[in-house]
Structures are given as structure tokens and as C-alpha cells.
């Protein structure tokens, strides 16, 4: 059976794209309500309203919602359940500049773009008529639209399912994943209430060519992981006229970036696939005004992707890089000072700096040993007050503020680097076929791809890691619990502003595959989705995968 769903999925995609649902705006709630209304209009959910939930996210700084819809199959009494998932939030539209009013209008935007010089590739795709342009079309409302179509289909034909199908439409994927973290609560509840056995999750997030000559279309098993190692660097302040009398933390941060930025040695590899190396996402000092005093402290954080490395192993590697950076800066400064003394006629004496690096776990333990419960209570209360006073404070900044506050308790004020995690953790999920659930999903997807391939004019290729961070990471633990212990102990905001939902994930814990949208230029002005592949072939691959898992 081949589904002819192109027109319906296209119409739904246009409707969703026209709702501006940028992350951390009211549009997220508006888009969720529209999808909820779509499901409410279906006879199945009118008969079974308890299978449809508009869920407000928990512990969130703004009002926004997820939508969860469950179709219970009547083709047998199996409890096997497949989860479909997709996010409705988008990144902002500042990149559109004066064209912002067209960003969410797939019908008018192409004509506006034709008036710009955007390169031959964009011009060719505009003229081909094969692509839909617009913010969120590729990432990833077209994928959500395809899953909406499939839920409608199976709600009309539940007899084709020996098992159950759940679709999650989540918000906040582009920031801190409040959406999927909240949705896990409903999955856990439904598992208990209906005796569900979760067997697979199918995400519909976007994919794109790897280079200009890449003709492949991609389906990805598992997903890449992500950690955000952060370095709080304390120097020794001095007047600029006595620059060698201090240690500028900006120099240490610069050396950290030189050692870490796009360093291929820090790539992670598994099953023949290699992650993109780390890259800097922010570096700054902590001065809030101009003075001729060098900064007291600075910080930087780096995106680190993983295929096989655990949080503990990543922290160990980053601590090693911090020590290397510190050693290099001490050597550089001493040589520079020696040369300066020779040129200026001053007497050279060796500079006093020593390499001093902690993980947050080590630094926190040292302060507890020095100050006992007084320090523990102070930092806990400081974190709570900070969260109450400024609940919208960025999670990364929140963690940095806690480390800075803890530093005030340090007895040794000599320069130091403290390494910690400051952001939401995205677990790596590697599928090897080691479990029956993994083997069934691998076999089902590969068979589905093979059956749909004759309908495509491009090769459809399977790979073993989805290469972008996504909410798929919350469908399985990825690491053993003792390895995740290092995540908790090295995230200062843990338990106040962020907690990785280990128990909720463990209740689901399924293998994942990304059967998603295909296009180009995600997060760019020229974001576009390939219509035929996304509106027709992707729903057919997903449909056949579901049928093989729940047939």
C-alpha cells in the first residue's frame, strides 16, 4: 500500500508555518492549540477524548503546551506502542532583517527571495518549484504535519494496528527542552494506566545534504549526544601599567579556545561515524564596565558532540585541556616576561603562577571540607533566591553565577579554572542491535526504506547517528546510571533550575530513529523543505515502519 498524502501534508505544513511559533514566544502555545483542535475534530478523539492531552509544560518560565494523541489499535491485543515525535517551536527571524513579515509566509516569501542575490543553489531551488520556503518549514513543521496525517489515518483505521500509536507535539526543542521533559510525565502515566510497552520512537526532525554534490536522502538510527563543558577562569587582577603583575583570565580563555575549537582530536567516533569537533559558543569576561584593571574572572563554553563518550569521560577530557591551557599560558607569560626584562633593563624573576584546575565536583567538595554545612546551605539558598528573583535567567548564566558565588568561599584566591556543565544534557543513543527492540526497529526501518526507494529519484541512505541535537535524546538513557552521576555532580544548577529526568526517561527507554524532513539551510534565511520527499516519501517510510512494528 502506498499513501497518496502529498496535498494534505502540504496544506497542513503551510497552515503550521503561518503560525509564528518562535521559541519563548506566545506563538508556541498558539501552534499547540491549533494542532490540538485538529485532533479534537477527528471522530476517534471525540469518542476517546481521554486519549488526547493539551499539556502545559512544567516548571517553565512562560506558558506553552505540548499535544499528545494516542490511537489504540484494534487489530489485536498487543500492548506494543510506537511513539511519534516532533517539535513546533522555531528559532527567531532576525536573520530575515527587513523581510521579517514574510518569514512565516511560504506563499509570498519565494517572490521576495527572487529579488535578492542569494547564490545559484538557492536560485535553482526557487525556480524548480520543488521546495517550500519559510521559517520552520524544514525545522520541522513539515515533519509534524506528516505525523498529524498518519495519526488521522490510523484513527480511521485502528484495525490495522496490533498495538498503539502515540504522537507527541512538543515545544521548546530549540532552547531547554521543557516540552519533551514535560511530555515524559504523560508517557509514564499512560504506560501505567494502559499497560503500554514502548518499543520505538520515531522523530521527524530535519536532515540536509552534507555538501553541494550530496544527492542522498537520509534516515538516522540513534542520535548524537551533547554536553556543554564550561570553564570559569579566575585570574589575578592588576593595573594595565603593571600588566605582568597579574594573570589575565582572558588569556587563559583564549588559549582554551585555541586548544578546543574545531580540534579533530576531540571528535568522538562510533560505528565508523565521527562527530563534528567542539566549537565555542561563548567566551566573555565578567567585567560590567570599563576600567584599567584587568578582569577578575572570565568564562567560556563549548559545544561537544558525543557518539560513545559518557559525561564523566567528557569532563575528564575537558579538565585535561584546561590543564594544558594553563601550562601553556604559564610558559608563554614567563618567556614574554623574560624577553621584556631583557629589553627594558629590569631584573627578571620567575612569575609565580601555578596550574590549578578543578572540576565542579572537586571544587565543591573542597569547599564543603573547608566550611561544612554552612557553605552547602548558603549556596543552596543563593540558588533558590536567584531562581525566584529571575526565573527567566538563562540556564548557562545561572550556572556561571553559582560558580562565581562559590568562589567567594575559596580560601586560596590564586588563579584557577573550574570546569563544569552548564546546559541541558542531550544523551547519545547508539543502536547496535544488542536488544530485541533495537533489532526489530533496525530491520523494520531498513525494510520500509527498501520498499519506498523505487518511488524516489534519489538514494535513501541509513546512518547510525542523527547528527544534530534533538529531543530524541530524551527517549533513552544513553549511559549507565553511574555514568550519569557525573552529570549531576558537575552541574551546579542541578535540582534547582535543571535536573535530567532520569527516572522518567527510564520509564520509556526505547530505541529511536529519525525519519524526518529533508531540505536545505535550516536556521537560515533560505530555509526550505523538499516537498515531494517530505510530504510523500517520509510519511510512507514512517507508515511502513509502524506497520512492521505493530502489524
Could you characterize what this model shows?
The chain contains 16 helices and 19 strands. The model has no long low-confidence stretch (mean pLDDT 97). The strands form 4 sheets. Strands 1-2-5-3-6-17-7-16 form an 8-stranded mixed beta sheet, with helices on both faces. By secondary structure, the protein is of the alpha/beta class. It starts with 5 loop residues before the first helix and ends with a helix.
Residue share in helix: 40-55%
- Overall body shape: globular
Q: Give the number of DSSP strands.
A: 19
Q: Structural class of the secondary elements? A: alpha/beta
Describe the oligomeric state of these chains in a short phrase: single chain
Outline the biggest β-sheet.
8 strands, mixed
What Rg, in angstroms, do the CA atoms define?
26 Å
Q: Could you give the distance between the termini?
A: 13 Å
- Please state roughly what percent of the residues sit in beta strands, choosing from under 5%, 5-15%, 15-25%, 25-35%, 35-45% or over 45%: 15-25%
Amino acid at each position: 500500500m502506498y499513501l497518496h498524502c502529498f496535498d494534505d501534508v502540504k496544506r497542513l505544513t503551510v497552515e503550521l508555518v503561518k503560525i509564528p511559533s518562535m521559541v519563548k514566544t506566545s506563538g508556541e502555545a498558539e501552534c499547540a492549540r491549533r494542532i490540538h483542535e485538529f485532533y479534537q475534530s477527528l471522530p476517534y478523539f471525540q469518542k476517546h477524548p481521554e486519549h488526547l492531552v493539551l499539556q502545559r509544560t512544567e516548571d517553565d518560565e512562560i506558558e506553552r503546551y505540548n499535544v499528545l494523541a494516542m490511537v489504540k489499535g484494534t487489530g489485536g491485543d498487543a500492548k506494543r506502542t510506537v511513539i511519534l515525535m516532533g517539535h513546533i517551536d522555531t528559532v527567531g527571524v532576525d536573520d530575515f532583517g527587513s523581510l521579517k513579515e514574510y518569514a512565516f509566509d511560504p506563499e509570498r516569501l519565494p517572490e521576495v527571495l527572487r529579488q535578492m542575490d542569494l547564490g545559484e543553489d538557492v536560485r535553482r531551488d526557487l525556480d524548480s518549484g520543488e521546495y517550500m520556503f519559510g521559517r520552520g518549514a524544514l525545522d520541522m513543521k513539515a515533519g509534524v504535519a506528516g505525523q498529524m496525517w498518519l495519526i488521522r489515518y490510523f484513527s480511521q483505521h485502528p484495525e490495522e494496528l496490533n498495538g498503539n500509536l502515540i504522537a507527541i507535539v512538543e515545544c521548546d526543542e530549540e532552547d531547554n527542552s521543557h516540552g519533551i521533559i514535560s511530555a515524559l510525565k504523560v508517557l509514564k502515566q499512560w504506560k501505567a494506566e494502559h499497560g503500554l510497552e514502548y518499543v520505538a520512537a520515531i522523530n521527524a526532525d530535519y536532515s540536509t545534504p552534507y555538501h553541494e554534490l550530496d544527492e542522498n536522502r537520509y534516515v538516522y538510527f540513534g542520535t548524537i549526544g551533547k554536553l556543554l563543558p564550561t570553564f570559569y577562569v579566575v585570574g589575578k587582577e592588576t593595573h594595565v601599567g603593571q600588566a605582568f603583575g597579574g594573570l589575565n583570565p582572558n588569556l587563559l580563555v583564549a588559549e582554551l579556545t585555541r586548544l578546543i575549537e574545531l580540534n579533530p582530536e576531540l571528535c568522538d567516533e562510533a560505528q565508523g561515524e565521527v562527530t563534528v569537533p567542539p566549537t565555542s559558543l561563548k567566551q566573555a569576561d565578567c567585567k560590567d564596565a570599563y576600567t584599567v584593571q584587568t578582569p577578575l574572572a572570565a568564562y567560556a563554553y563549548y559545544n561537544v558532540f558525543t557518539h560513545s563518550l559518557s559525561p564523566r569521560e567528557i569532563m575528564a577530557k575537558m579538565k585535561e585541556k584546561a590543564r594544558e591551557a594553563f601550562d601553556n599560558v604559564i610558559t608563554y607569560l614567563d618567556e614574554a616576561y623574560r624577553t621584556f626584562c631583557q629589553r627594558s633593563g629590569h631584573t627578571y624573576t620567575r612569575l609565580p603562577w601555578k596550574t590549578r584546575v578543578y572540576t565542579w565536583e572537586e571544587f565543591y567538595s573542597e569547599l564543603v571540607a573547608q566550611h561544612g554545612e554552612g557553605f552547602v546551605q548558603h549556596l543552596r539558598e543563593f540558588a533558590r533566591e536567584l531562581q525566584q528573583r529571575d526565573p527567566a535567567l538563562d540556564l548557562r548564566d545561572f550556572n556561571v553565577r553559582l560558580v562565581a558565588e562559590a568562589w567567594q568561599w575559596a580560601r586560596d584566591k590564586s588563579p584557577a579554572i573550574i570546569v563544569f556543565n552548564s546546559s541541558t544534557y542531550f544523551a547519545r543513543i547508539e543502536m547496535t542491535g544488542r536488544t530485541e527492540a533495537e533489532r526489530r526497529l533496525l530491520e523494520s526501518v531498513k525494510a520500509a526504506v527498501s520498499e519506498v526507494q523505487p518511488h524516489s529519484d534519489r538514494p535513501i541512505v541509513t546512518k547510525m547517528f542523527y547528527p544534530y541535537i534533538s529531543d530524541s535524546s530524551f527517549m533513552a538513557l544513553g549511559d549507565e546510571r553511574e555514568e550519569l552521576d557525573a552529570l549531576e555532580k558537575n552541574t551546579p544548577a542541578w535540582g534547582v533550575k535543571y535536573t535530567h529526568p532520569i527516572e522518567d526517561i527510564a520509564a520509556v527507554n526505547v530505541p529511536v530513529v529519525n525519519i524526518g524532513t529533508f531540505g536545505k539551510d535550516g536556521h537560515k534565511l533560505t530555509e526550505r523543505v523538499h516537498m515531494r520527499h517530505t510530504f510523500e516519501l517520509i510519511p510512507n517510510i514512517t507508515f511502513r515502519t509502524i506497520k512492521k512494528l505493530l502489524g
